[in-house]
Amino acid sequence: MGARRRMARTFWRILNPVTRDLAGFAPWWVLLETTGRRTGKRRRTPFANGLFDGASLLLIAVHGEHSAFAHNIAADRHVRVKRRGRWHAGTARFLAVDEPTISRFGFYARSGLRTFGADPRILRIDFE
Fold first, then answer.
1. pTM to 2 decimals?
2. What is the sign, positive or negative, of the torsion defined by CA atoms of 69, 7, 122, 46?
């Protein structure tokens, strides 16, 4: 594992527990809930708020399909997202990163991509 990935992993292990309580209420964060692939327990991961059109939500997954939540999505694509205090159920899938889509995200969401991005993907959640 490279030094950049180790640094990012340490950063997120410190920051995620702090932001998890605020995510879903603060307008710049959302909370993604997946089901653990081995334990079956719910796992919650904070994300920078993305592009929401009422039927779907696009988020930037800075570590792509290498993250623990990505492995959980591969096992069970059904997720929940807490956005602005409300839970939304949906189905998640990963898309390739393309510059026109990334440019539509806010500065805060794009900053994680530039700072810690390692094989990034777009996470699309289609709501039920």
1. 0.84
2. positive
pLDDT digits (tens, 9 = 90+) for 3-33: 766 776 777 677 777 777 778 778 889 999 9
Band (pLDDT 50/70/90 cuts) for residue 1 is low
Residue 87's CB: how many other CB atoms inside 10 A? 11
Question: What's the full length of the chain, in residues?
Answer: 128
**pLDDT for the residue 116:** 65
Question: What is the DSSP track for 53-85?
Answer: -SSEEEEEETTGGGSHHHHHHHH--EEEEEETT
CA distance linking residue 25 with residue 16, whole number of Å: 15
Query: Structural domains in the chain?
Result: 3-127 (2.30.110.10)
- Cβ neighbours around 59 below 10 Å, total: 23
As a whole number of angstroms, the distance between CA 26 and CA 11 comes to: 20
